[in-house]
Amino acid sequence: MHVPDGFFDVPVSAGAGVVAAAGVAVCLRRARRELDDRTAPMAGLVAAFIFAVQMLNFPVAAGTSGHLLGGALAAILVGPATAVLCVAVVLLVQGFFFADGGLTALGVNITLMAIVTSVVGWTVFRLVTRSAPRSRTAVVVGSFLAALVSVPVAALAFTALFWLGGTAPIEVSSVAAAMGGVHVLIGLGEGLITALTVSSVLAVRPDLVYGARGLAAPLVLRTADGEVPVDRPAPAPAPRLGLRPVLVGGGLVALLLAGVVSFYASSAPDGLNKVAADKGFNANEKPHDFESGPLAGYGVGGIENERLSGGLAGIAGVGITVLAGGAIFYTVRRRRQDKAVV
Known about the structure:
Elements: H1 10-34, H2 39-54, E1 58-61, E2 64-66, H3 71-78, H4 80-97, H5 106-131, H6 136-165, H7 172-204, E3 218-223, E4 226-233, H8 243-259, H9 271-279, H10 306-341
Antiparallel strand pairs: 1-2, 3-4
């Protein structure tokens, strides 16, 4: 759902930029509470993983594909505020290095793909896990539903912005029906990827899943008068793996997905591009300012072998995302520590 330049007029693009900047500023502040000794190292990995998986377009209908948005997944793994920052980092890397997503539309993309998906996904996840018995099953089911709902909601938010300032005179109800329909299908794929990823982390280090903290049942004191709950939670079991193996393993998976598996991704246009072509407003798309960059189009300039070019670009993207995200999360984490000392 990367919106290119030219789909929205100046007021909506500027307004979305203000919303995005304000949202990121709020999340930078709130992420201090989420970025602890476990979440901070995970955040950079989550951003890199989202970048890698977004390269894997999967077919959803005839001539249409979809890819992970990642807001719900990041919110469940590292917290909602940090999730916004993770997806925003991915969008910045994609926009400035890979010419994916317009620069004037960056505020729109951050608002839709980072803020809306993270907030909606986290809200749905919390509703599910709070209304169900505390268990890993509830976390996985909540992850699936959170991701499933977040995608069509983001698509409808796009439609609302298009109604406010789209550059083509097209019936909004027609755009809403097309965007909502195809993105429900994409949401199913997003839900499956999110549930699979969350369940995999739960299997090896459940304490690294931000949304699963506090799952341990409270201690119960058995007395002659019956069972009395104790406020102190039961101690968590010792982790099966250290943090470093998890980070290294996750990083290798991201490199494998971006460097190798991405070559086999669907070449069909994604949901937004397909709707834009069908409805005719893709004619307003403007060339990207960095379309001649060395990594534009997810390929390394000067390398003719398509497989090698795409693989190296994917690996470079994972590395850039880790470095950029790591620098941001490390800085936010340090500010939290410095504030605690003061």
